[in-house]
Prior knowledge:
Number of helices: 5
CATH class: Mainly Alpha
Distance between the termini: 63 Å
Order of helices and strands: HHHEEHH
Structural class: mainly alpha
Number of domains: 1
Largest sheet: 2 strands, antiparallel
CATH architecture: Up-down Bundle
Strand order of the largest sheet: 1-2
CATH superfamily: Protein of unknown function DUF5063
Number of strands: 2
Amino acid sequence: MSTTDLEAFADQVAQHIANYLDGLERVALGDGEEGVVPFLLLEVSQISFIGAQLGANEDVVPEGNIEPPHALEGDVDALRQGLAARLADVDDYVEVFDPFSKKPELEAYRLSDDLADIAADLTHGLRHYEEGNRIEALWWWQYSYFNHWGNHAGAALRALQAVVAHARLDVAEDLTVEAADEVGVL
Length: 186
């Protein structure tokens, strides 16, 4: 890709990241009493799609192959705490960290930690972007996708999908059994 193409791609990625961060902040602050988990499922799905695009793209290497310094990172603790409060009943889950390991082990995760860690990584790149360093931003988003936030997004996506699936399928199963019992099938 040419530099112009990479910069245009960075613009697209930055917009998706801003949407993700805005959505998380709204949830953490209490918006959307009903439907928080399905909303987060959509948010994580969309940011995972952007991550997949970053992963499928050629390696992005910043000029001089170094990351320029920029302002200090924002603190995501308030975001993490707000999400933890909203996700209290479904925050903790387990996941296989490396399915290709010779001895895969279950790891304990928290959705609130995953979502906040993703936000921290994306915000780091967004700071580069806002300072006019679009190639560095794109490099950071791609690098951190492979190195950190991509794993958290994948794990969170599976956990959120499982919560939604259980809510829908378990209810449907209960209603089916109840209806079958009422008509004398069981």
